[in-house]
Amino acid sequence: MDPCFINGIASISAQPTTNPTSFLEEIISYHQPIFKAKDPDYKQYISPATMRRMSKAVKMGVTAATMALEASATSIPDAIITGTGMGCKQDSERFLENILHNDEEFLTPTPFIQSTHNTVGGQIALGLGCKAYNITYVQGSVSFELAAMDAQLILSEEPSKHILVGGIDEVAKNSIVLHTYDEQIKDTDAVDVMNLLNTKTIGSVSSEGATFMVLGSKKTEKSLAKIIDIHTISKATPDIIQEQIETFIIRQGMTLQDIDTVILGNNGDINFDHYYTSLQTSIFSDMEQLCYKHLIGEYPVASGFGFWLASKIFTLNKVPSVLKVNQIKAKKHINILLYNQYLGKDHSIVLLQKC
């Protein structure tokens, strides 16, 4: 696919990441396995009357999308493409609880209408008055990447367009219980999240967030980064992943020595972090290595935060020490590779380049 440019990006996460002038100078340290995103002032972007009917996912999505559009100086996008792993879980659970409590009678349809996975994309379109292409990808932990790949395909055919791409997932109480039972979340009341990557126990920590970006085929004065290529893999062993990454880099006409920094999705789950550590001690051993899930937690579209991180690093030419997991410091930040997986599947490899 043809490369494209990130012309504006915004992220709402468990850290204070909505201030465009700061870059992880202030860090919130969590001590529980489940924590929520730090809310910006939603009233700046959504009217109080409208916000009353919105779930957390919708509020985060609409706000992050508005911030990204403003950053790119885009009023109405030519397409809205969203990704989510679980959709609006809070409204889904509310509707199912009403079915049980009311014996399937006298049900209000509102929670059901607002619980669908494409609710966020629809709300963004309604707020903007945008009647363009609008689709949602629900593909586990590669939902964000597939949304970006769809945008790349559109831009390769219609280069003049500006496309809004984003990912959203929220915390919901019943889903948290289920994920604790199947060992996706650490079974403990307290965990030092800042030490997450060294816990060596089963499961990770759970959180929520939203990342949105505006993509275009041409570089502008607003451009932050260039998406060179994205590759996803359903299931693979660590050895195959290493081969795939090497092939991916060669396909770009590059070598491993051309990669300045890698941003990895380590999440402290001893059952699956070996996908990362095998790379960290082999082909990535001479590179600057960064991780972020000890700051924002794990959720299906958490990998979108890596796009935000790389864009900030390119723009500010600095790396907050809280991200570093080895002692190597890159001499420059021109090419950044992102790699993420979840539960040994839904692997994504992304190459971003400084504009």
What do you see in this structure?
With 355 residues, the chain is α/β, with parallel strands linked by helices. It has two domains: 4-216, Thiolase/Chalcone synthase (Peroxisomal Thiolase, Chain A, domain 1), CATH 3.40.47; 225-354, Thiolase/Chalcone synthase (Peroxisomal Thiolase, Chain A, domain 1), CATH 3.40.47.10. 31% of the residues lie in helices and 20% in strands. The chain has eleven helices and ten strands. A ten-stranded mixed β-sheet has the order 3-2-4-5-1-6-10-9-7-8, with helices on both faces. The longest helix has 16 residues, at 56-71. The mean pLDDT is 94. This is Beta-ketoacyl synthase chain length factor. InterPro entries: Ketoacyl_synth_N (IPR014030), Thiolase-like (IPR016039). Residues 44-171 form the Beta-ketoacyl synthase-like N-terminal domain.
List the helices and strands and how they pair.
Elements: E1 4-12, H1 48-51, H2 56-71, E2 79-83, H3 89-101, H4 110-113, H5 119-128, E3 133-137, H6 143-157, E4 162-169, H7 173-181, E5 209-216, E6 225-235, H8 238-251, E7 261-264, H9 274-280, E8 288-291, H10 293-296, H11 304-316, E9 335-342, E10 345-354
Helix pairs in contact: 2-5, 8-9
